[in-house]
Prior knowledge:
The structure is a homodimer. Chain A has helices at about 15-25, 40-50, 60-65, 80-90, 105-120, 135-140, 160-165, 180-200, 285-295, 310-325, and strands at about 5-10, 30-35, 55-60, 70-75, 95-100, 125, 150-155, 205-210, 215-225, 230-235, 245-250, 250-255, 265-270, 275. By secondary structure, the first copy, chain A, is an alpha/beta fold. Chain A has 2 domains: about 5-125 and about 285-300, 3-Layer(aba) Sandwich (Rossmann fold), CATH 3.40.50; about 130-280 and about 315-334, Dihydrodipicolinate Reductase, domain 2, CATH 3.30.360.10. An 8-stranded mixed beta sheet of chain A has the order 8-9-10-7-11-12-13-14, covered by helices on one side. In chain A, strands 3-2-1-4-5-6 form a 6-stranded parallel beta sheet, sandwiched between helices. Chain A is globular and about 60 Å long. The N and C termini of chain A lie far apart (about 45 Å). The interface between A and B is large, with 41 and 41 residues.
Amino acid sequence: MNKKYNLAVVGTNFIVPRFIDAAERSGYFHLHSIVSRKTQSGLCFRSANGYDSDVVIHENIADMLNDDKVDVVYLASPNAIHFPQAAACIKAGKHVIVEKPMTSNTRELLSLIALAKANNVLLMDAMKSLLCPNFSILVDNLSRVGRIRQCTSTYSKISSRYQGYLDGNNPNTFNRMLSNGSVMDLGVYCIHPFVHLFGSPEQVHAYADLLDSGVDAAGIVILKYPQFHVNITHSKTCATTNSSEIQGEDGTIVIDNISTLTSLKFVDKKGEETEISAPQDPNSIFYIAQHLGETISSGLKESAVNTHALSTKVLTVLDEVRRQTGVRFPADDR
Amino acid sequence: MNKKYNLAVVGTNFIVPRFIDAAERSGYFHLHSIVSRKTQSGLCFRSANGYDSDVVIHENIADMLNDDKVDVVYLASPNAIHFPQAAACIKAGKHVIVEKPMTSNTRELLSLIALAKANNVLLMDAMKSLLCPNFSILVDNLSRVGRIRQCTSTYSKISSRYQGYLDGNNPNTFNRMLSNGSVMDLGVYCIHPFVHLFGSPEQVHAYADLLDSGVDAAGIVILKYPQFHVNITHSKTCATTNSSEIQGEDGTIVIDNISTLTSLKFVDKKGEETEISAPQDPNSIFYIAQHLGETISSGLKESAVNTHALSTKVLTVLDEVRRQTGVRFPADDR
């Protein structure tokens, strides 16, 4: 039986109960505390999700960090505050897993990585794609496409908060102050696996159309590699029915949903389709939680998959995308 | 009953019998002569397709143009020779319909348009998409997507001649001398309807990976409009399963096959799909032939749909794409 690590979660948005479900089912974690800016919201969140009444509610991170029982912190707060919050966790000697993108920019991330090393705690990127079992199947089947000639990837979905934005309610998800927007929230899912597969691109070309709030409504990111391009489209203000694809001279791998790799098929050059995906846990965060548990219990301070180097390469691409598209965050000027 | 126009066709590739079928079924045309560089090939083509034995075979355009009975010429020769051949037809007082792209570059096209005007004959672009009945349905449904936030379009298909290219046989379709390649052959299908719908883009950005022959194997074209981008991927060396899409804040129009608009659906923002396409003639060239017949019999010298202005705007985009991607044709230096 694994030692159960005491988990604190920061944030009460829709992703947090899914992380807690994954963490508890992984067998590695026990929900210990919830950080919510308002105690009342934390209490509602705890009861609405049926968590034990001994789960502690804290109104701020500092109080939670003072609790010696907390082993690991999951940060699902707005992007802009990942950096100060993760730094506080690290300084308090807690392991920390941070929702994607880990920080507002590369400078913050490099500083965080150095801090984690100095404090000998685990710092991990919660990007889930590479840890889904179907990602291994994708890698195993990659050679079937032959020489790669083109990749396309898309994540375009109308945010449930977009109507609120149009109504003038300034929701977090379209708020420049919080380091949000389309490429940070959805485009990053398309960038991460391709940078993992093919390394840092030779060049990045980016285009976007911005909202009045200053974040991107929709955009394009092109990753140039020596012999092909990855063409990424992302949006939080319109939706697509298309899949991501790795297209080669001998066939195409079709990836339905680049964030969870729910379905994978290989289409040969005659158009014959073969389903190659395996069934996955419906809550794909399960694989992140399982990997986090394995990594901590092995005494490692860095994931062997979601490495610090990979997160840094991805944030370097995001920085360049924002430079070219004119999306600038307050965090960039600190 | 319409007057039947005597039709001469130049070329014997796979598209020509489809044009002849369309032309004859339209009721406007009668196949009169075939131009084929080798009489023997022309004879084989005539008998293989079951055309009447009184259809004349010519080894060169000049002989065919000397025949007063020919009213209209369909040019399906390699792109590089569209210009000299069309110019010869016009000078001989024949109406001429030219396969897409009409010429190697804008300079040639402008010269051809001026020549057609001076000679008072019809010059028409054989690009078929806008003339398919489903294109009108697309236009009628466009407002359903609300404010457009992003368009994507794709035409990627492995050419049946690509293995021959890899085997060193230098087929026409990958031959720089003939003004060929991916964007000229397939990408143009994605550019044409969007330039028709939204006008000349403010900016064009293009990327491509070239074959050793100097033409593009696969590429990306981005058309920038004031409030959104059209993201085009095209290839003749790999294939896609994706559709073209017009994505708006209220829903998405999904276009399956941008060249023929075989299937159109509207997906609302809740994900509800509605099929909106009508059945079309399986040979979509039928609509080109029908429109050509109507245009000639109305005494017009320019199509009201595939206008000279539209063809010029499209070739201007193609010129810019090739400038940015380094695909240069001998025709550009003449």
